Amino acid sequence: MSEALRQKVSTALEGLEIEGLPNTSLADIASMAEEGDTVLVRLEFGQPVKQRSASIKERVGEALKSQGLQHFIVDIQQNIPAVLPQNSQASVTGVKNIIAVASGKGGVGKSTTAANLALALAYEGASVGVLDADIYGPSQPQMLGVADKRPEMYGPNMIEPISTLGLKVISMGNLVTENTPMVWRGPMVSGALQQLLQNTHWTDIDYLIVDMPPGTGDIQLTLSQAVPVSGAVIVTTPQDIALLDAKKGVEMFRKVNIPVMGVVENMSTHICSQCGHEEAIFGQDGGQRLAEEFAVKVLGRLPLQLAIREQSDAGKPPLVQDPDSAVSQTYREIAHEVAAQIWQQARAGSTAPEISFADD
């Protein structure tokens, strides 16, 4: 390819900004070639873009035409990197990135956020796993419609995660009956979490979403010290009591060198289903104040809405039951930002080596 032609393509790509992607020029992730009178442009994204690939191709095509190019093929690939954070102790076989979804207190919608974040990432074309780390009160089996499923054995001391809604899921709730309380002390709970992580047959998982129990106890310390967590998402409501506990969660992750990717403000407002009146029942701008205090982003704001509760209880979260709703769109925007931040970490140089296996 001539230098003049290469420059035309680079100029077209450099002027494009794609919403939901890290601050990077498309020219930096492009490879170019020429076959006859056709220009081949391949863009390799480090985050899932399946649902946006058609619109990205269209915009790239328009930009190329603006530079006088008429014959071209735009190919979009995604190659999600593994990020090895500073806290890394040991990897989890078959998992590239671990994302902890946490809260300072219970009842703020953490499990709902974890389930829909996982579904949103899968919707964009990523391979996603969900680990329910709330040993005492697992919610994911009910939310993802697998409360009656039991995992199959893969081999000695290994189990297969349960496949549902495009996800791979494992939870203590799938190993015991719903009426069996886990009357365990801290060391037993920590041991159970490590077994669920290391003794599950994860394969080619781009993102493992870990639904953490509330608080800053044994489970949180075990996860942060035993495995490489790429980042944490903090879920809170706007009320002051929830924010006090959420601050402790942010501080804990910072102390163990896990990046806090941002705050999800749940139950921001309630919109009356009868008259449409909008009211901030739990206060206003709490998540924004928390984000500003710790210099992180507000990833999204979700309403207090009856449909979210009903859909989650029925095992069909919003991303499944009503994928075109405003709530589902918010979850997708949260997923875009989380994936972009992980890609940004990788581009900053903290990538883990990728291992491939072959028969020869």
Structure description:
This protein is α/β, with parallel strands linked by helices. The chain has eleven helices and 15 strands. An eight-stranded mixed beta sheet has the order 8-9-5-10-4-11-12-15, with helices on both faces. A hairpin with a 2-residue loop joins strand 8 and strand 9. The longest helix has 22 residues, at 326-347. The protein is globular, with a radius of gyration of 22 Å. It starts with a helix and ends in a 13-residue tail after the last helix. Residues 350-360 have low confidence and may be disordered.
The shape, in one word, is globular
The oligomeric state of the chains shown is single chain
Portion in beta strands: 15-25%
Element-level helix/strand string? HEEHEEHEHEEEEHEHEHEEEHEHHH
Count of structural domains: 2
Short description:
This protein is α/β, with parallel strands linked by helices. Helices cover 35% and strands 21% of the residues.
Secondary structure layout plus pairing:
Elements: H1 3-14, E1 30-35, E2 38-45, H2 53-66, E3 72-78, E4 95-102, H3 110-123, E5 128-132, H4 140-143, E6 153-155, E7 158-159, E8 162-164, E9 167-171, H5 186-198, E10 205-211, H6 218-226, E11 231-236, H7 240-255, E12 260-265, E13 270-271, E14 278-279, H8 286-294, E15 298-301, H9 306-313, H10 318-321, H11 326-347
Parallel strand pairs: 2-3, 4-10, 4-11, 5-9, 5-10, 11-12, 12-15
Antiparallel strand pairs: 1-2, 6-7, 8-9, 13-14
Helix pairs in contact: 1-2, 3-11, 5-6, 7-8
Task: Give me some keywords for this one.
alpha/beta, Rossmann fold, 2 domains, 15 strands, 360 residues, 3-stranded mixed sheet, 8-stranded mixed sheet, GMP Synthetase, Chain A, domain 3
